[in-house]
Amino acid sequence: MNHTDNPIISSVRPARPLGWFPIMTKAKITNKQSDKVEVTEAQAWAIEEGKDYFLMRAKANPDMVERSCGSNKPEEFARRQFVYMHFVIRSGDLTPWDGLFEPLNSMSADDLNTALLKGYVVNGGRGMKKWTAKEGNYTYTIDERADGNFDLTINFLGDRLYLWFPSYKSARDYLRREEDFTGRMNQVKEGAE
């Protein structure tokens, strides 16, 4: 039987000689999608708190930062520690995140790393409003949530108190009544942070 009589062998193309390459032309490849990761509001909150926590740890250990990342790069060290911890948790070697960080359990380590490096977009976050005010050592922030409630953050020199309210008015009333804040809240324009 000749190899041309066998339908399987006859359909195989002959091998190309070594050194044969197709002619390549320069083509511009554009990625129309954003490099930012989409996250939920709870994940965004956890990411911001994680950044603060791991940055605080990095600043407390400058020698470790120096050995790991070179001089004066605590932000890079904090990012690496946060992503590494998340990777170990996702691989099952540590118990899953709980409390404030629990929403991160559904996020991959690669997505967390991308969110820390390139930023993130909050799902349903379009149109959500934010107001801030500063008085002495206090910073007040009111964030509108996708579910219609409002988060109030009171920051006193890095010590934060988190509260939620059913309306903007009730959050402002709390500030007037409990914090004696009668100043003006300034609305933050979207993307201006």
What's the arrangement of secondary structure elements?
Layout: H1 7-10, E1 37-39, H2 41-60, H3 62-69, H4 74-90, H5 109-118, E2 120-122, E3 130-135, E4 138-144, E5 150-156, E6 159-165, H6 168-178, E7 186-188
Parallel strand pairs: 1-2
Antiparallel strand pairs: 3-4, 3-7, 4-5, 5-6
Structure description:
The strands form two sheets. The protein has a five-stranded antiparallel beta sheet with strand order 6-5-4-3-7. Helix 2 (41-60) packs across helix 4. The chain has six helices and seven strands. 17% of the residues are buried. A hairpin with a 2-residue loop joins strand 3 and strand 4 (138-144). Helices cover 36% and strands 19% of the residues. The chain has helices at 7-10, 41-60, 62-69, 74-90, 109-118, 168-178, and strands at 37-39, 120-122, 130-135, 138-144, 150-156, 159-165, 186-188. With 193 residues, it is of the alpha+beta class. The protein is globular and about 50 Å long.
